[in-house]
Design goal:
The protein is of the alpha+beta class. It has one domain: BolA-like (GMP Synthetase, Chain A, domain 3). 32% of the residues lie in helices and 19% in strands. Strands 1-2-3 form a 3-stranded mixed beta sheet. The longest helix has 13 residues. The termini are far apart.
Length: 105
């Protein structure tokens, strides 16, 4: 199972989202082709209702603890309730361009 598939499966099972998007953004970074190291997740779940942003991120991190201790280098997390998601017109922020890490001049 790929890292992307594992992330999707775990978030589906644990958070039962009404919307889930898991994007492999590794190609936007200075990594070998085919890498699965940089991801962006957007999760819309009623389980986030009444929870702070930190609490929501902890929920996601808890679901993905194995991946965070292994193949993941970076994880952008966007969490919303259905009402918040509708207010955003079903859009999460774009990820910033990679600055090249230690190779940036």
């Amino acid at each position: 199972m790929s890292v992307q598939e594992s992330i999707s499966k775990k978030l589906q099972e644990d958070l039962q989202p009404s919307f889930l998007q898991v994007l492999n953004e590794s190609a936007m970074h200075n990594v070998p082709p085919g890498s699965e190291s940089h991801f962006k997740v957007t999760v819309v779940s009623e389980q986030f209702e009444g929870k702070t942003l930190v609490a929501r991120h902890r929920m996601v991190n808890s679901c993905l603890s194995r991946e965070l201790n292994g193949p993941l280098h970076a994880l952008a997390i966007h969490t919303y309730t259905r009402k918040e998601w509708d207010k955003r017109q079903a859009q999460s922020p774009d990820s910033p361009s990679c600055l090249g890490g230690s190779k940036a001049s």
